[in-house]
Amino acid sequence: MALVIQLFSYVLWFPLKILGIAAVLRVGVRRYPLIFAYMVATFLFAAAELPASLFYHGAGHHTNKDLYMVIHWYEEGLTYILILAVVISFIYRATARLLPRRIIRMVLAAGGLLFIVVSFLIHYDRSLPLGDWVTPWTRDLNVCAAILDLTLWGLLLGAREKDSSLLLLTGGMGISFTGEAIGTSIQSLARIQKSLTIFYVGHVFMMVADAVFLYIWWQTFRKEANRSKQAVAARQPVFGDRYAHGTNGPPGK
């Protein structure tokens, strides 16, 4: 059962991630450099984890467990750091027209970095298995990212000029954070009741939320790329337009 769910998650996740990366490239990496770095890095993390993950789930959670857990938890920690960086970059962009923007940006950047370091120092313990201290650390990073995402959402809704792309990107992340929180809670309940079925329900919940998040990002970047393409096409004169508009007479006149 675990192997089937894992295979389905990869079949769902990898195409959406590739489509999202392609759409970001169409929009332009310079417009979303941190998002592009996040998308590519998480794709590479998943690709590196794929063989160990399938072997681990297919072998009854016993064979190759240590290798899989090390790769998985390092990937989780790095992913949440990247997510925090993306959220902070969104807030940085949303506060572009606010007068105290420099102070806001410095506080957010310094606060986010300080939170990562302090949380790491609190939970890090060399005497414990990797997952025992990385789990609460990534949980703290997820909570921090969710709070920042809500702050960003409030800033965007209160702005006079709405940035539809940023609203959708922020909303997609909010769905991911909410799904992660609910799925983790379901899995915690499953451990208390010692129910493998409930545990799988939590995993599926997180998988669906992440797929929705990736789909929203893909569609947002795809539509923005199309709008940019149309805007560029509208500014470029088509061959023969000068004759149609009478700016020059046709040849021979």
What report would you give on this structure?
With 253 residues, this protein is mainly α. The chain has one domain: Rhodopsin 7-helix transmembrane proteins (Rhopdopsin 7-helix transmembrane proteins). 82% of the residues lie in helices and 0% in strands. The chain contains eight helices and no strands. It has helices spanning 2-27, 33-58, 65-94, 101-123, 130-158, 164-193, 196-235, 241-244. The longest helix has 40 residues, at 196-235. It is globular. The protein starts with a helix and ends in a 9-residue tail after the last helix. Mean pLDDT is 79; it is low at 249-253.
* CATH architecture descriptor text: Up-down Bundle
State the order of secondary-structure elements, H for helix, E for strand.
HHHHHHHH
Largest sheet: none
Distance between the termini: 78 Å
Count of spatially separate domains? 1
The first-level CATH class name: Mainly Alpha
Question: Uncertain regions: pLDDT < 50 for 5+ in a row?
Answer: 249-253
CATH superfamily: Rhodopsin 7-helix transmembrane proteins
CATH topology: Rhopdopsin 7-helix transmembrane proteins
> What structural class is derived from the secondary structure elements?
mainly alpha
**Strand proportion:** under 5%
Give the strand tally.
Answer: 0
Indicate the mean pLDDT.
79
Rg for CA atoms: 23 Å
What is the overall shape?
A: globular
Helix run count: 8
Helix content estimate: over 70%
